Amino acid sequence: MHRLVYVTYLLMVASAGITFIFLEDIETDYGIPAWGIGLISALSFATAVFASLAIAPYGDRGHLRLLGVLSFVTAIIGNVWIGYATELWSLAASRALTGVSAGLFSIVGRKALIGDTTDDSGEKIGGFISAAVAGFILGPALGAQLSEWGGIETPYLVVAALLAVVAIPTLRWLAATPIAVSDDANLLAMLPLLRSPGVRAAVLAQIAVFFNIGVFDATVDEYLTDLGVSNAQLGLVLIVVASPLLVMPRLTGRYVDTHPRPARIMLGALAGFVPIVLLLGLWEGVAVFIALAFVQTAMESTIFPSAARVVINETGAEKSAIGTGLIDAAGSSAAAVSAFIAPIAYDAAGGPIGSFGVSGVVAAVLLILAWLNIADRDASQAIQKTTS
Question: 3-180+188-387 adopts what CATH topology?
Answer without folding.
Answer: Growth Hormone; Chain: A; (1.20.1250)
